[in-house]
Amino acid sequence: LAYCVVQFMEKDATVTEYIIRGLLKYWPKTCTQKEVMFLGEIEEILDVIEPSQFIRIQEPLFKQIAACISSPHFQVAERALYFWNNEYILSLIEENCQVILPLVFATLYRVSKEHWNQTIVSLIYNVLKTFMEMNSKLFDDLTASYKVEKQKEMKRERERAELWRGLEEYQERRMQMLTEAARNQRNLQERGERGDPLSPSSPQCDQPEPKPSGANSGAGESAT
């Protein structure tokens, strides 16, 4: 089927964009074998694509390739990185380096530091080296921007962690206050049930009732 598609494209180059966008639309999400197969079909199409058609699909295409590079499954990442071993595709990338490099740089840089497979890391270093040779100024600018953004991200993570720590401490203090209040209430109830005179809820029988103010004034008048 891929062979038939390529033959059809050679007869009518204008259908290239629709074919690639169709493949991207139905890109496999869970099956790594299908992802590898789709990457192979994309490479066969790119082998015969016209530069004018390549420009029309480069952004969505390399966003998907960047996603494949960051795949934890090494076969998917490896198959995506093999695109840079194709001389014709590499020439297309070089002609459009200003567009393509910003799309994939952050992924390449991050995966080179985090991926578990050493083969993938080596392939990524080769790709980064190729990009650096293509456009060293753009590469340096993207490197500096990535490091600044990474520092901002780390600062946001620290602020988020401090916020959560403050919320946890507040919740812990609140629970302690609620527990203490419940304990005090329980003690008051227990003392009230025992008839403890010290309890505010027990009747204060030992205290004399205050006399009305009128009685004192009447007694004074009688004495007079």
UniProtKB/TrEMBL annotation:
Any one of the GO CC terms: protein phosphatase type 2A complex
What the entry lists under Gene3D superfamilies is as follows: Leucine-rich Repeat Variant (1.25.10.10)
Highest taxon, organism lineage: Eukaryota
User: Signal peptide location in the record?
Assistant: none
Q: Which GO terms describe its molecular function?
A: protein phosphatase activator activity
Question: From its record, what is one biological process in GO terms?
Answer: signal transduction
Q: Which Pfam families match?
A: B56
- In this chain, the stretch annotated as Disordered covers 176-224
SUPFAM superfamilies from the entry?
ARM repeat
What family does the database annotate?
A: Belongs to the phosphatase 2A regulatory subunit B56 family.
The cross-references to PANTHER family, in alphabetical order and at most eight, read: SERINE/THREONINE PROTEIN PHOSPHATASE 2A PP2A REGULATORY SUBUNIT B (PTHR10257), SERINE_THREONINE-PROTEIN PHOSPHATASE 2A 56 KDA REGULATORY SUBUNIT BETA ISOFORM (PTHR10257:SF4)
Q: What is this protein called?
A: Protein phosphatase 2, regulatory subunit B', beta
Its source organism is Iconisemion striatum
